[in-house]
Amino acid sequence: MLLDFSHGMGDPKIAYLGRALREECGLEGPIATIADVPSRSLLSRLTDHYLQIIANRAPIGFEAEFVSSRGARRCTAGS
Asked: What is the model's pLDDT at position 13?
């Protein structure tokens, strides 16, 4: 995933979204911004932290466990 903040930080554009994340979210069509991210998806868990990263001006670490909208248990970690 690559976010584009060139038009502001309020709702960044999704410049690139890889196949695996697209499949996990069940996306079939285009996705333009973070507002378009399906709730309870792995992608939503990752994009939830973008404001923290901007505020800190540095990578952050996080871990999360959740049940996706498809009923799959997911464990994530990021930095």
From this structure: 94
**CA separation for the pair 79, 53 (Å, rounded):** 9
Where does 26-66 have alpha helices with state H?
A: 42-47, 50-56
Residue with the bigger pLDDT between 76 and 44: it is 44
Three-state DSSP at 60 gives: coil
Q: Which helix (H) or strand (E) holds 25?
A: helix 19-25
31 within 8 A of 37, measured Cβ to Cβ: yes
Q: What are the residues facing 66 on neighbouring strands?
A: 74
Q: Contact at 8 Å (CB) between 46 and 25?
A: no
Q: Is the pLDDT of residue 79 over 60?
A: no
The beta strands (E) that lie in 1-79 are given as: 2-4, 13-16, 62-67, 73-78
